[in-house]
């Protein structure tokens, strides 16, 4: 198990991949799982599976994720799964579906732009809470209700991560 300082360093160095950083070629399920696990490992410092074959199949079955094309997954699959794996720490699958639906109805927002915005806010909020223990100094000016919702969702996630970090650090 990692020490409190190793976990803190990992969280402060965490960088959520942007759309341009995702593979621009099709990959198989095992590669998909390995890729997402490597991206998100710093956020999962307790012994838990980030993603499994059954989880992916369940997300497809529940229409949270588009089915693979000839057993191949692309960048859109990766981005959706990264977001789902992060959101599932706080939200139910039904809530995640609803949040994705809200994003898809936003005007002038592609899923690529939405994914990058989510990644940016996640990093900013995560680094802020790990450095300072709170989000008090973040005072975003929202351009829309959807952006406010995104910030609230990200806040919930980073608060959960911080709580886990704080509790695990009490054990050492």
Structure report:
The chain has helices at 4-13, 29-40, 53-61, 75-87, 93-104, 111-132, 145-170. With 172 residues, it is mainly alpha-helical. It has one domain (4-170). Helix 1 (4-13) packs antiparallel against helix 6 and helix 2 crosses helix 4. The model has no long low-confidence stretch (mean pLDDT 90).
Shape verdict? globular
**What structural class do the secondary elements suggest?**
mainly alpha
Residues in helix, %: 55-70%
Radius of gyration: 16 Å
Q: What sequence of helices (H) and strands (E) makes up the elements?
A: HHHHHHH
Mean pLDDT: 90
User: Runs with pLDDT <50, length 5+?
Assistant: none
DSSP strand (E) fraction? under 5%
- How many distinct domains? 1
Number of strands: 0
In DSSP terms (H or I, runs of 4 or more residues), the helix count works out at 7
* End-to-end Cα distance: 10 Å
Note the main sheet. Answer: none
List keywords for this structure.
172 residues; mainly alpha; 7 helices
Secondary structure: elements and pairs:
Layout: H1 4-13, H2 29-40, H3 53-61, H4 75-87, H5 93-104, H6 111-132, H7 145-170
Helix pairs in contact: 1-6, 2-4, 4-6, 6-7
Task: Kindly summarize this structure in a few lines.
By secondary structure, this protein is mostly helical. It is built from seven helices and no strands. The protein has one domain (4-170).
């Amino acid at each position: 198990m990692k020490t409190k300082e190793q976990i803190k360093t990992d969280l402060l160095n965490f960088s959520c991949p942007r759309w341009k950083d995702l593979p621009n070629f099709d990959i198989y399920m095992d590669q998909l799982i390995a890729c997402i696990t490597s991206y998100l490992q710093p956020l999962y410092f307790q012994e838990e599976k980030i993603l499994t074959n059954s989880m992916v199949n369940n997300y497809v079955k529940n229409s949270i994720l588009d089915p693979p094309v000839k057993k191949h997954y692309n960048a859109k699959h990766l981005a959706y799964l990264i977001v789902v794996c992060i959101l599932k720490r706080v939200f139910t699958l039904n809530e995640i579906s609803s949040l994705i639906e809200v994003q898809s109805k936003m005007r002038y927002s592609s899923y690529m732009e939405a994914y990058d915005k989510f990644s940016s806010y996640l990093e900013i909020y995560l680094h802020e809470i790990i450095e300072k223990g709170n989000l008090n100094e973040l005072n975003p000016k929202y351009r829309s209700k959807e952006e406010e919702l995104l910030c609230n969702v990200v806040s919930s996630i980073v608060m959960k991560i911080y709580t886990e970090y704080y509790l695990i650090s009490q054990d050492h």
